[in-house]
Amino acid sequence: MIDLPILNQPETAAPARPRKPDWLRVKLPVGPEYAAVRKLVDEHKLHTICESGNCPNMGECWGAGTATFMILGNICTRSCSFCAVATGRPTELDLDEPRRVAEAIALMKVKHAVLTSVNRDELKDRGAAVWRETVVLTKQLSPSTTIETLIPDVKANWGALETMISGGQEVISHNMETVGSLYRLVRPQGRYDRSLEQIRRTKLAGHRTKSGIMLGLGEQPDELYQAMDDLVANGLDILTLGQYLQPTKRHLAVAEFITPDQFAHYREEGLRRGLKYVESGPLVRSSYHAERHVNVPV
């Protein structure tokens, strides 16, 4: 018997991507405090992650006196599938950067500074000396400014970690980014257990600890609850939960848009499971309301 082709068979359509919901729309930044910071940034050609990352909370954070700066260049040695930062082998190490960042923070009269960086796996100390010097100089020039450092994975270089966290900052953050089952997809060069260990060691050193997880990558609620339990067991104080948004078509697509009600539920779950503070909402990013986190009891 000869199989004849079936005529007029509809083509298989690609699964439709979820549309961005209304709750992810934000108002344009306004206010005198925002305008003052905006003027300084433009006049002195300062670099903030708030701008380069098109953060939806830029106006609110700048109005509250909070700004986020990235150190150690703009080329990352990792290739995470959610992040738009360029991947490659960095060729420069600017040892004068700590001074310039500290002066910029003083110039902007920042009340709470968040420092972050790319991964510098090619450096023996993972960039730890620059991290510490930036915090120390910022404290010298702006004694009343509080600091959060959002540090990268040190790949179990625990000596580098000790240097990174010893500058006198009030909050030390390391983002888990996702749940354990999605690590190979989202952070292929990271390890779930290693990031937990980094948080555990930071807490044992007596610091206020913080981490962040993106939602909407395909995680299940039970997996998020397990991650919360793992973080509590390893000494985490503060957790941020926000909606993942695809930066370009080359990056991971959004699997799901989490509703504001579900974010509110996750916040309550996190507190019930032992976290001291949970910032949870569609527009929450790592440094959202960061100035409030310095008051969380250690």
TrEMBL record:
Entry similarity comment: Belongs to the radical SAM superfamily. Lipoyl synthase family.
Pathway: Protein modification; protein lipoylation via endogenous pathway; protein N(6)-(lipoyl)lysine from octanoyl-[acyl-carrier-protein]: step 2/2
A single MF term (Gene Ontology): metal ion binding
Cofactor needs: [4Fe-4S] cluster
Residues annotated as binding [4Fe-4S] cluster 2: 76, 80, 83
Major location (coarse): cytoplasm
Entry's Gene Ontology cellular component terms: cytoplasm
Cofactor binding mode and count: Binds 2 [4Fe-4S] clusters per subunit. One cluster is coordinated with 3 cysteines and an exchangeable S-adenosyl-L-methionine.
Catalytic activity entry: [[Fe-S] cluster scaffold protein carrying a second [4Fe-4S](2+) cluster] + N(6)-octanoyl-L-lysyl-[protein] + 2 oxidized [2Fe-2S]-[ferredoxin] + 2 S-adenosyl-L-methionine + 4 H(+) = [[Fe-S] cluster scaffold protein] + N(6)-[(R)-dihydrolipoyl]-L-lysyl-[protein] + 4 Fe(3+) + 2 hydrogen sulfide + 2 5'-deoxyadenosine + 2 L-methionine + 2 reduced [2Fe-2S]-[ferredoxin]
PANTHER family (UniProt xref): LIPOYL SYNTHASE, LIPOYL SYNTHASE, MITOCHONDRIAL
Subcellular location: Cytoplasm
Keywords: 4Fe-4S, Cytoplasm, Iron, Iron-sulfur, Metal-binding, S-adenosyl-L-methionine, Transferase
Keyword Transferase: yes
Upper classification of the organism: Bacteria, Pseudomonadati, Bacteroidota, Cytophagia, Cytophagales
Entry EC number(s): 2.8.1.8
Name of the protein in its database record: Lipoyl synthase
InterPro entries: Aldolase_TIM (IPR013785), Elp3/MiaA/NifB-like_rSAM (IPR006638), LIAS_N (IPR031691), Lipoyl_synth (IPR003698), rSAM (IPR007197), rSAM_sf (IPR058240)
Binding site for [4Fe-4S] cluster 1: 50, 55, 61, 287
Matching Pfam families: LIAS_N, Radical_SAM
Record domain Radical SAM core: where: 62-276
GO biological process: protein lipoylation
